[in-house]
Structure formats: C-alpha cells, structure tokens
Design brief:
Oligomer: homodimer
CATH architecture of the largest domain in chain A: Alpha-Beta Barrel
CATH superfamily of the largest domain in chain A: Metal-dependent hydrolases
Strand content of chain A: 15-25%
Number of strands of chain A: 16
Largest interface: A-B, 46 and 46 residues
Structural class of chain A: alpha/beta
Number of domains of chain A: 2
Radius of gyration of chain A: 22 Å
Chain lengths: 447, 447
C-alpha cells in the first residue's frame, strides 16, 4: 500500500485496546475502544459502548454507518515513540567504546566514524539502515544529528522524506577542538547551513521532515560560529538542537573556553540559540540551578538520555527537579552513546536511573513511574513536533499497533491495559509492533 | 538430533571466532581458532595457525586427521551464560509491579502468583515456558527458586532434566510472614525438602540438575526452620541459596526479628546456611563490612542482580568492593524482579549500575568493564557449577555460537573479536544465538 493512501480516506475508526498518556503520570485507557481519525488528525476516542452505538458494534466491516473501521481488536494502540536525540552517523558504532567517558569516546570512536560521511555512498548506506531501524523500533518522530557534511546531510533529509517518518534533521557545525577532517571553515559552515535551510525549510513532503540548526556543542563551536547560527535561526525561525552539561569534563572544558559566561547554557543564550526559537538541549546532567532557571525561562526542552548517560559514566539527569521546576522534558536514545534505538528501552532506563537517583538523593528525588516515562517518550517529547504524542482530539495520528499476545502469561487476557503496556515496555520488542502510523498514514518498511 | 549424540563422538574441534574470559578483566581471543572438545570436557583451544597445522586447515570436513571438525567459521563461540538467581514461578509476572519496592511488590504481585503453584498443571505450563526462554536467551546453567510446593518443584526438576540445561533447583521454604496459602508447617517443610534431596540428589541425568536448599529469606523463615535446613545441608552436603540484604526495609525487618544477631548474614551462619556447604546469597546491596568479611571467610557467592535492584529501587551492590575484598561474585537475572531473562542484558545493567555507583562514590568504586561483566556472567558465576564458564582445558564445554553478522555495520568483518563481543552483548539478542552446548552436548529447543 502506498504509505499515504490511508490519509485519503475521510474518516477511519481504529478499534483496539487504546492507551495513551494525556498528562504526566496519568494513563487514559479504552479497552476495545474506537480511535476516530480524520485525515491526519484525531477526531475523538470512544469507549467500547460509545463506539458500539455509533458504529453498530459486532464485527467491524468496511463501509459501516459512520465510516470505515480498521480492526485491531485485542491489540494495544499507543502513540508512536518520539526520540528527541539521535545521531544517525553513530548508528554503526552503537554499543562500542562504552568503557570510555565522553571526551575520549568522541576522539577514539565517534569522530573517526563521522569522518567517513564525506563519502556520500557510505552515508547513504548507513542512513538507510539507521532509518529502517528507527521504523522497526516504533520511533515515529525523531530529532537527528547528521555530520558536518552538507551532501550527506541532504541525503539523510531525502531518505527521511522517503520513509514516511517525521524528523528534524540537522547538519552539524564544528570549527574547533576536533580532528582536522571534521573541522569547518566558519563562513563555509554558515553557508552550508543556510543552503540547507533554503533547500528544505517548509518544503518537505507533508511537512514531516524539517531542518534544525545543530551546533554540535560549545567545545567544538567558536562564539563567532554560534552567533552566526543564532542569526540564521532567527531569520528562518528554525529550531535548534545541541548538547548541554553532559559530563563534568566537558563542563570544565566549557568553563575554560568561556570563563566570562555565567553558565554553559548562557553561551548558547548569548548566541540566540537557547529558546529564541524552539530548542532541544540534550543531557543536562550537570546543570546548575541557574542553568535550570534559564532553560525554563526560555522554554527549552531538556532531553533526558538515560542509557547514554549511564554508558558514558556521565551521571543521571535530575529529571524530577527539571519537571518540578517547569522545564520541558523529553527523552532521547542518544544512539550511539545509547546502545538501543528502542524508546521503550530508553523509558525503562529512565525509570531505573531515576530510582537510583532517588536512593542517592536521600529519597528526595521521586522516581519516575512507568506511566510518567511513557508520557515523556510520547507526549512529552512529541510536543516538540506540535500536537503529537497523544490521542487527544486535534492531535496528529501517530500510533503503534502492538500485538502483545503473550502465551507465556496465563491469564494474559484479563490483564488491565496499564499492565499490558508495562509488560510490553519492559519485556517486548519490535517483533510486537504490527503497524506504525505517522500523521494519519500507515508507514510501511522503508527502502 | 538427540541432544546427547554429539557427546558420543570422541573428539570434536569447533572452528570459529573464540572468545572467553579466563580471568577478571582479561579476554582470550582466538580468531578463526579451534576449540577441541573430548566428551563433555574441553581439551584445548588452538589458534588458527596451530589448528591448521593439526587439522590441515582449508575446508573443514568430517573425519579429518585428528577427528571431526564442526564449522562455525565467521561466528563467535563464547561460554554459555550462567544465571545464579532466577525465580521460575515469577516468569509470568516479570515486568509487572515495578513501580513498587521489595516488600509491597512481594505482597501484591509475587506471593499471589506463587500461590498458584499448588496447581501442578499450571506449574508445568509455566515452567516449560520459563525453561524454553532460558534456552532461547543462551543461559546454559541456572540456580532456580521454585515455590514452597513440593510437587510443582519436582515437575521443575524433571523439566530441567528433559531440557538438557544445567540447573540447581530449590524448593522454597517459608513458615512465617507470608500469606497463609504460602506458609508451611515447619516439620512438613523439612520433610518435603528431605524428600526432594532423597529423590534427586546425585541421580539426575548426567549430573546436570541438582537440588539446592532454598530458604526464601530470613523474614519468612523461623530460626527453627533455618536450623533444620542447615542440618539437611550438612547431612547431604547440599548447596544452599537465599537472599541477603537486598532492601533497607528488609534489613530493618531482619534486625527487628533477630536483634541478637550481629548481622543479617549471621542469622544464616548460625543455622549452618552460610558457606558450610557451597552457598549463593543474592543481592548483598546493603551488606556491612562485617557481613562482607563473613561472606569472604565462608566462601559464599554474592550474586549481583543489577536490573532487579534498580527495578525495585533497592540500590546497587558495591560489586567492586566485594571483588576487592575477595568475595566470590556472580550475576543473576532475578526474574521476575529483573525483567529480562537475558544474561547479556544483566551484564550491561551491571556495567551501567557500576558506572553510576562510581560517580556517587566520588569516583572511588571503579566501574566494571565489558570484559569484567562478561567474566562475572560466565566463569565467575559458572564456578559454582564446577569447572564451568571458561574454555580452559578441563572445563565442561558449555558454549554459545553467535551468528553476529551485522549488515548494519560497514567494516563489520574487520572488527576485533573483543568489539564483536561487546556489540553482541549491548545490541544483540537471542536471534543471534545459533547453537547452545552444555557439558559437551548440543542442546536443542526443549518441549
């Protein structure tokens, strides 16, 4: 089926066991419910009895009274996963070099790999595989770093457009403190970024793939470069993504490079790259109170990447403090420092890390519940893309159909939907995902 | 093929990319090596050039000069995974109730599930599925808790015997502080335990499945019961497994129940259940220095269950301190508090937890490397079963053949074996496991 055929149908009711998280900590559950979609948007979710009244109940069949019904009875229907931090060129090195910390890992594993993306054949081959894996794992929207290479980045754009997934794609900018083969001339870096903005801004298929301004992080970007990128962000109204306060060595390095700045975040702020347009800052493990306040004031998303932060011995972002402080929080896999593309794994990692954080904070920092982690990886992260990540009326219909039939669990049929969701997140995998929808359209395996 | 046919062949050389951990932190790697097995034991491991000389190199074919060659070229051959802590009756509840801590989780999820094993039909159905999953995930030896029910426990014995996997199987003892449907009369509990020892001790097929004395933990076992079990352990020379210092609430509870005891471990010790025969103590998260000293003196295995300890907000066992103190350390999945049966996942969880522990100990508690975690889940744990978990001469041939061909990684063929192992542990799964051997025999899918 053409991935976009279904968007043409006027009104479709998806019938199944519907679970989503409209607010932090709360699950909305509709056993055997009806999720009514019109075009790319959700119209409403109906309980079994409401839906039966409207659609006649019984066996669903095409052409019922109120439109077509798609039968996913006995299967979970949940919002698609949203990954706010993913490095496409690190896909081949995931799971490697993880006995290192951030700065040596970058030098020994990541930079050498990223150097290869001057070869567009190589880039295309890897990027296809990375996108296919995102699709398999149920990630329906993703914010992605490419490399400094303009041509390879444009290939990544086109492949995402072809895939049917939603993405912000960023050409990385770097002009200092990196191997020569990855260093850009400041003017060229800005010109290439502008070129990509011109070429892709607002013109992508169905608006699902958009450029995002992507300074790697302060250590590899001079203030000149950052200021230039800030000007581009402003003039195009383009979003921004970068890294912030991941590792203590990195924080020290930034302090040494910018002794005048009141905080690491303040360097981005000074350049117009901290919420002047919608902004993602990955990690925020070692953010000070002052930095947290600044992120809240600027409406910046703090992107929690728990697996990567454990893998590189960076620490645990105090996610509860961020939430309580009113900072927007989302989740990221941070592949390749994170080894798993699966956002379900990332949610579990966030929960586990938060429990250890709780213990080590003398039980002050309340751990995340399963429902909270699920919210963060769906609506929490999805809100960066607009009305995405929930099944409330007016939200884009991004969804996963989960065939979680489990013959290893006697009494599976009687499990409440909240437990079936928890079971899937903890023990399921991509083999349980039967269908993926983005903005109303069924998305089939790309490439 | 009958799982034991291969054991009949006199001498078999398995040719492939051989990796094992003979000591903590050290990997032995034999690219395109030969692993020579005689009956159930490893004779030697030969490098490619040594093996080519002896076996003529080139295409392996049956009936070569020095015996049969089995061709696993291009695939990893690693020791089988050993899981020192697994609750078979919690297999259906894994991944559930993990927003709780230990004591409420036991009451709300675990005890009600364990109550069902008075029904031997139910027990047989679940235990088949649990063993099949152990097989799938590459666990070749496992120390297992059943429930208090003698009949269901005997079924678990027979199913393990049928499977070809190696196991210590324990009927659980409990006579206080649990729901009435799980409480035993002390005398009956001891008689049932003795009955199982009589029936299974030393008579299991190929010696692969053995009984183990299994008081659940001090809170649910009176001193009378513990003393009786200690006498049984002594008179049969039977091994012992239990839980120790997992959660602060539990430690408090034990202190209240046994105010006279100098430590939690001392209660077991007083009963003859702490290393008087080979002993496994799961968790040891909150062990005092005194307790650690006692464990070392008694030669007790401290079984690290990192995923379960994160899931139930118990904490992180100071694994480095145990190792440095000379305590024997192994790994356990602790299904169902641990959600994954895979020991590869448990190894990664051990590494991640140790990195956070390192940070929170002001960088004193050196984190585990990948090679160290691999050692703990193979030879470290395997030594409880004898000469198991390594490929040194005289060790039992327990092995996994890993087909890790990875077309998502350009240059995969050139990766060093240590990186291929790391990649598999972090990102692989049971789909990569092509064959499993226990004590020289190929083990096919059970049931």
């Amino acid at each position: 089926m053409n991935p976009h055929d279904t968007a043409q149908a006027n009104r479709i009711a998806y019938r199944g066991d519907i679970v989503f998280a409209p607010t932090l900590g709360e699950l909305a559950v509709y056993p055997d419910g009806y999720l009514v979609v019109e075009g790319r948007l959700i119209d409403q979710v109906l309980s079994a009895s409401e839906g039966d009244l409207l659609y006649g109940g019984g066996d669903p069949s095409p052409g019922g009274g109120s439109g077509r019904i798609v039968d996913y009875r006995g299967k979970l229907i949940i919002p698609g996963f949203v990954d706010l931090h993913f490095h496409a060129p690190q896909f081949p090195t995931r799971g490697l070099g993880l006995d290192e910390e951030l700065l040596s890992w970058l030098e020994e594993y990541t930079f050498p790999e990223e150097g290869k993306y001057s070869d567009i054949g190589y880039a295309g081959a890897v990027y296809r595989r990375a996108i296919k894996e995102l699709w398999r794992q149920g990630t329906t929207r993703v914010a992605v770093f490419a490399t400094v290479h303009r041509e390879a980045t444009e290939i990544l754009f086109r492949l995402f457009q072809e895939s049917g997934l939603g993405a912000y794609v960023g050409k990385v900018n770097m002009n200092r403190n990196a191997p020569s083969y990855l260093l850009e001339d400041t003017e060229q870096s800005l010109m290439d970024t502008r070129e990509i903005l011109e070429r892709f801004y607002g013109r992508s298929q169905a608006g699902l793939v958009k450029p995002i301004i992507t300074p790697r992080f302060v250590p590899t970007c001079s203030l000149d470069l950052l200021l230039g990128l800030g000007r581009l962000a402003k003039s195009y109204g383009a979003c921004v993504q970068s890294h912030l306060s991941e590792n203590t060595g990195e924080v020290e390095l930034v302090r040494g490079l910018h002794p005048e700045a009141p905080s690491y975040a303040a360097v981005y702020d000074q350049a117009g790259l901290l919420g002047q347009t919608p902004t993602l800052m990955a990690h925020c493990v070692h953010s000070t109170e002052e930095e947290i306040d600044l992120l809240r004031e600027r409406g910046v998303y703090a992107v929690h990447c728990p697996s990567a932060n454990s893998n590189l011995s960076s620490g645990v972002m105090p996610v509860r403090r961020f939430i309580d402080s009113g900072v927007r929080v989302g989740l990221g896999s941070d592949v390749g420092a994170g080894h798993s593309v699966s956002m379900a794994r990332v949610m579990i990692s966030a929960i586990q890390s938060s429990k250890l954080k709780w213990l080590w904070s003398s039980r002050q920092s309340v751990p995340l519940t399963t429902a909270e982690a699920f919210y963060l990886g769906t609506k929490g992260s999805g809100s960066f893309f607009g009305r995405v990540g929930s099944f409330e009326p007016g939200f884009e219909f991004d969804a996963l159909v989960i065939n979680d039939m489990d013959d290893t669990t006697p009494g599976f049929e009687e499990m409440p939907l909240s437990e079936r969701l928890q079971r899937f997140l903890y023990t399921g995998d991509e083999r349980n995902i039967e269908a993926r929808f983005v903005a109303g359209s069924l998305v089939v395996e790309p490439f």
